[in-house]
Design goal:
The protein is of the alpha+beta class and 764 residues long. Helices cover 23% and strands 25% of the residues. The chain has three domains: 177 residues, Aldehyde oxidase/xanthine dehydrogenase, molybdopterin binding domain (Aldehyde Oxidoreductase, domain 4, 2-Layer Sandwich); 188 residues, Aldehyde oxidase/xanthine dehydrogenase, a/b hammerhead (Aldehyde Oxidoreductase, domain 3, Alpha-Beta Complex), CATH 3.90.1170; 228 residues, Aldehyde Oxidoreductase, domain 4 (2-Layer Sandwich), CATH 3.30.365. Bound molecules: dioxothiomolybdenum(VI) ion (MOS). The site of dioxothiomolybdenum(VI) ion has 10 residues, from loops.
Length: 764
């Protein structure tokens, strides 16, 4: 019988219900704190004498600041300072010191460093006052005169100067060398398609605004609450920029209200708040406005061309995928857009290309499933187009070209249950009942379309440490400087520790979100469970050995002759598997040894040599139904089934939530999200949540999540590959393909707004 984990149907364990097993559906251990308001976010930490900073944003896109008149602002009662590039505290001049742990190549933006303006909305001053209201009013009175220079934020108009990336970025792989002769094979292929794809800029728009609260303490120590995906990354950045010793800066991010990649790098409110706190020697909080959330990193605008060639039986002969994306003038941001097209389908002739163009915009930044969201979208819409060209079922075309080994590297997969994803999702969706012809299904005045696509994302593991303390009262505290950006890290880590040591979940506490804790990577790339989770497992395993040896040595120990394999840690005891009555409780063990606690630490170093022999990835199959109003061009995504192969699932409930969230992001990418640049101003015009559309509840209908069986001990010792980003990849393509099936219209740019869905011909 299939051991399908269907998270929807798995009974949920509530926190405080005792010992848990890996794979159970467990409600968030931090849920109560979040809904009661006890959980504090960066802008919610109190401090005596707290001051409030409000950022003044540049109103030009390129040029220099000629003069700043702050007299009117300073005259507002309660205003303490107006910080600008002319009066700020000392900060480093060296690019190197502004490079956070995830910085791309080039020269990072240095807030208030000098008079140069690099992008629209760049911070030019910080007004600090007793109240937020006084600061905001005074900020509106700061007069800035500029010497403007001509700017250019037009990607399409600058394709001629696109070029290959020149710099190396950690974690980014350039497209692999061509395989075979893809251009010749495409020319020769009996069936072929070609399509150009466009994706506009998207902004992350987490609910929580970027914010930092900086509290100077005795001896010049700074305690900082920051919205970030890594407290240690922010700590590193502040130390370097301000020349402060490592132990003089502590950064905390115990709760993060969504980030989606925007918090992979420190954003400018952090150094501005630090400047003000140092300048005034007072606690300072800076919160960005929703409009200012559109003045830093975004998902880059991207153009793509995909060409596929095939034999009449559907065998792929050629895959050619080229992309051009934007970066800033000062940094070289790159993401993996086209490489996926060399990893999904078996093919002898593959050519992939990726170019970038410098524009006068802030440097783009990773946003959920960076690269794959656009790249797999284009490939999967192209595959659908090819299926129609071949008059073949879109799922059958994927199965015909199923890759048993990685087509780019020739390596075997560490695990790949994509076939199961296709089969289980198609079955659940009812794909076999589809009528293949476009415009062949209708309900009332709505055309109905069914589409499908494949998804793929990395299965990453990084370096991490963990520390564990078991107290004599049976409570366990495990810690690592991880983050929980809303993804469920607290709960997953507590579950791993609870299951490992056989302790009730309520006796286990996982500590994260503090730069002084053991090293953990930035929470990104859906890698935290495989990374920090394996470190938690590692430290618990070390503690178990230690406790086992102590238990054997106890006077009259019932375990005296037992081997480690003959015992289990369960119900707060170490006991014989064969005779659970022969047990020693962990509390008795510590008390018997006159110990108040026992602790250990663990360092996880990914086994790079072993891993390099395998292609490591998560996969998904997404099926969806859309209903299109022909007169209005409005699209409703009425049903989505997503089957995901992501290794062992730790918390079925949180994992399902991650995939549901990813599907919502995919629907959003497909139908709603785009930041519109008025090219004359070089500025994003719809910089608010009334004009930058994200789905609301009324936009979201049935979402059905399936986790197929996988257990990948090459990616991680706990068998997990990580879920999160895989939930989004392929969803927008499935929507696009369903729109084609409904209407016979192929929409190749996102978002697929009603104007595009209604337009005939090539104008889409
Ligand atoms: Mo994610 S874009 O790796 O935070």
């Amino acid at each position: 019988m299939s051991q399908l984990i269907d998270a929807l149907r798995t009974p949920a364990a509530e926190p405080g219900t005792g010992q848990v097993a890996i794979g159970m559906a467990v409600s968030r251990v931090d849920g109560r704190d979040k809904v009661t308001g006890a959980a504090r976010y960066a802008a919610e930490f109190p401090a005596d004498g707290l001051l409030f900073g409000v950022v003044v944003s540049a109103t030009i896109t390129k040029g220099r600041i000629a003069a700043i008149d702050d007299a009117a602002a300073l005259a507002v009662p309660g205003v303490h300072a107006v910080l600008t590039h002319m009066n700020r505290p000392a900060i480093s001049a060296l690019n190197l010191f502004y490079k956070d742990m995830t910085a791309p190549g080039g020269a990072p933006f240095k807030p208030l460093r000098d008079d140069r303006i690099l992008s629209h909305g760049q911070p030019v001053a910080l007004v600090v006052a007793d109240t937020f209201e006084a600061a905001r009013h005074a900020a509106s009175l700061v007069e800035v005169r500029y010497d403007s220079a001509a700017h250019d934020t037009n990607l399409r108009a600058n394709l001629a100067r696109s070029h290959e990336p020149k710099k190396k970025r950690p974690g980014y792989s350039p497209p692999p060398a061509p395989k075979g002769n893809a251009d010749q094979a495409w020319d020769d292929a009996p069936r072929k398609i070609q399509g150009d794809y466009y994706a506009g800029v998207e902004h992350h728009n987490p609910m929580e605004l970027f914010a930092s609260t900086v509290i100077p303490g005795p001896d010049g120590h700074l305690t900082i609450y920051d919205k970030t995906q890594s407290a240690q990354n922010s700590r590193w950045y502040v130390s370097h920029v301000f020349g402060l010793p490592k132990d003089k800066v502590t950064v905390r991010n115990p709760y993060v209200g969504g980030a989606f990649g925007a918090g992979l790098r420190p954003q400018y409110q952090l150094p501005l708040a630090v400047m003000a706190a140092l300048h005034l020697q007072r606690p300072v909080r800076v919160v960005l406005s929703r409009q200012q959330m559109f003045t830093f990193g975004h998902r880059p605008e991207t153009l793509q061309r995909v060409r596929l060639g095939a034999d009449a039986d559907g065998t792929l002969r050629a895959i050619i995928h080229e992309a051009v994306a934007e970066t800033s003038q000062n940094e070289e941001f790159v993401e993996t857009v086209v490489n996926w097209s060399g990893q999904l389908y078996a093919c002898d002739n593959i050519r992939l290309g990726y170019h970038i163009v410098e524009l006068d915009r802030f440097t783009p930044i990773d946003m959920r499933a960076p690269g794959a969201a656009h790249g797999v979208h284009a490939l999967e819409v192209a595959m659908d187009e090819l299926a129609y060209e071949l008059q073949m079922d879109p799922l059958a075309l994927r199965l015909k070209n199923y890759a048993e080994t990685d087509p780019s590297s020739g390596l075997p997969y560490s695990s790949k249950a994509l076939r199961d994803c296709y089969a289980q999702a198609a079955e659940r969706f009812g794909w076999a009942m589809r009528s293949p012809a476009p415009r062949s299904m209708r309900v009332g005045n709505e055309l109905v379309g069914w589409g499908m696509a494949t998804g793929m994302w990395d299965a990453l593991q990084m370096f991490a440490r963990a520390h564990a303390v078991l107290h004599a009262d049976g409570s366990l505290v495990v810690s690592s400087a991880a983050s929980d950006i809303g993804t469920g890290t607290y709960t997953a880590m507590a579950m791993i520790a609870s299951a490992a040591l056989g302790l009730p979940l309520e006796q286990v506490r996982f500590q994260l979100g503090d730069s002084t804790l053991p090293v953990a990577p930035v929470e990104g790339g859906s890698s935290h469970v495989a990374t920090v989770g394996s470190a938690v497992q590692g430290v618990c395993d070390k503690l178990k050995w230690c406790l086992f040896r102590m238990a054997k040595a106890m006077p009259d120990s019932p375990l005296a002759k037992a081997h480690f394999k003959q015992v289990e840690f369960s119900a707060g005891t170490i006991r014989l598997l064969a005779n659970p009555a022969q047990a020693i409780s962990l509390t008795a063990l510590l008390q018997g040894n006159a110990m108040t606690s026992i602790e250990d630490k663990y360092m996880l170093i990914p086994a790079a040599l072993k891993k390099r022999k395998f292609q490591r990835a998560t996969h998904s199959a997404v099926f969806c139904e859309v209903r299109v109003d022909e007169q209005f061009g409005t699209v409703r995504v009425t049903r989505v089934v997503s089957a995901v192969a992501a290794g062992r699932i730790i918390n079925a409930k949180a994992a399902r939530s991650q995939i549901v969230g990813g599907v919502v992001w995919g629907i959003s990418q497909a139908l709603h999200e785009e930041s519109h640049d008025d090219l004359r101003l070089g500025r994003f015009m719809n910089h608010n949540l009334s004009e930058y559309h994200v789905p609301v509840n009324a936009d979201i209908h049935d979402i059905d999540v399936i986790f197929v069986d996988e257990d990948d001990r090459i990616v991680s010792s706990i068998g997990a590959k990580g879920v999160g980003e895989i939930g989004q990849v392929g969803v927008a393509a499935a929507v696009s393909n369903a729109i084609f099936h409904a209407t016979g219209r192929r929409v190749r740019s996102t978002p697929m707004t009603p104007d595009k869905v209604m337009l005939p011909g090539d104008r889409r």
